[in-house]
Amino acid sequence: MIIGALAVAWLIVFLVLIKGVGSLGKVVYFVAIFPYFMLTALLIQGMLLDGAIDGIKYYLTPQWDLLADSKVWRDAAVQIFYSLSVCTGGLIAMSSFNKFENNIRRDAIMIPIINCATSIYSGFVIFAVLGFMANEKRVCIADVAEQGPGLVFVVYPEALAKMPVAPLWSILFFFMVVLLGFGSQFSIIEAVLSALIDVLPRDVQRSTGKTILFRAIMCSCFFLVGISMTTQAGIYILTLLDQSVGGIPLLVVGLVECFALQWVYGTERCAEDIFRMIGWKPSFYWRWCWKFVSPLVLTFVLVMSFIQYKPITYTKPDGVYEYPGWAVAFEWIVISIPILLMIIAGFYNFCRMGGGKTLKEALKEVSKPQWDWGPASDREPFYQAPESSESYANLNERGENIAMSYKSPYISSADSLKGNMHTPHINTISANTAKQAGNLSSNNNGVLNEGFQF
């Protein structure tokens, strides 16, 4: 029965993502909006119950001593990372489908505000019902509050069973939980599939049938992995993976992203790119936060997580289960996999650049914008010319990458490729450049003849 439900869930995921964001966008409106109506209905019903006010007071009363616990800070960071899909590829994958001029400043401010406001609003819904439960059992609210799956699948359903018209509230509540689960799963899986499809051969990317087949194969593989969590040991496996994948790895990825974007690529260059996209350059406050505050906060939380590390445990109704040594070792293996993948990918790209470069030269190379950076309209004249960006990379090795000079805002002529890459204006190809492009096309099997329109 459980395996069948898992199979149906993955079938739904596949059908929703069968065409990528094209089909996902139509579903996400309902999946994202409906839970707000359910939360509001549950809040109204919860506030009418005895003891609800006590639960709200407990929710709004801070416990300052917990600020000294690094686990609280780590859990808070991981919660934000997970809910915003930060450091998991979700934001990058979804934003890659936006228009080049999309107002990213508005999105970057509004999305976290809406996300945090939703979390606070959900807290009122939960603790109103927990206050009712504590009043019914004549115990403290802390005794009925439970972390993890137990809160959703044990404590809250028990409270719903004692409400008026309990079957209706139970059905609506679990329907909301299913929608929230699917909403998260849709975005996470699409981020993974989009990243994998981007590195597939070009003929696979262009074929709708092959792309759908690839998505079906990946969803089948994920289903097979999920079978292990439908066994009697499933909750222990889920807890192990949840605490290992969602903790230290996300902090490390976030720290590396901050370092790569602000210290390798450059804060000023990043600010110039944003200015080109939306006509607004980030102020000193934003650049200072990106370059110093965020990395320092992540470093502090990461270091404290190592210092105050405790072996993983699972709280059961009859006590606390301590994982054996081999499970703790497996936890560290899972933690190290994302970190090792970043190191391997960095070393691989370093070797692709020749391997003989110094670290300074390699960092300078990777800090340059890619050849296709810019609005899609700037690249339309030679979209069909190369089979991949490697065609342009080969030309660039000769110092004569004429293709990029057509409408790039960074390059005014073929000769400027050897100079500054950040000239903020657009020039058409000069007669001299056109002549060079024509000569070059004869030596490259006509690659550029189809690309340029003089």
Mean of residue pLDDT?
A: 78
Number of strands: 2
The biggest sheet amounts to: 2 strands, antiparallel
**Proportion of residues in extended strands:** under 5%
The SSE string, one letter per element, is: HHHHHHHHHHHHHHEEHHHHH
* Percentage of residues in helical conformation: 55-70%
Outline the low-pLDDT stretches.
381-454
- How would the global form be characterised? globular
SS element count, helices: 19
- Give the spatial strand order of the biggest sheet: 1-2
Determine Rg (CA atoms, Å): 26 Å
User: For the terminal residues, how far apart are their CA atoms?
Assistant: 65 Å
Structural class: mainly alpha
Topology:
Blueprint: H1 2-16, H2 21-47, H3 52-60, H4 70-84, H5 90-95, H6 104-137, H7 141-144, H8 149-160, H9 166-198, H10 202-206, H11 208-226, H12 234-245, H13 248-278, H14 284-307, E1 313-316, E2 319-322, H15 325-352, H16 359-366, H17 390-397, H18 431-442, H19 447-451
Antiparallel strand pairs: 1-2
Helix pairs in contact: 1-11, 2-6, 2-9, 3-6, 4-14, 6-8, 12-15, 13-14, 13-15
Question: Could you describe the 3D structure shown?
Answer:
This protein has 19 helices and two strands. It is an all-alpha fold and about 450 residues long. The chain has a two-stranded antiparallel ribbon. The N and C termini lie far apart (about 65 Å). Residues about 380-454 have low confidence and may be disordered.
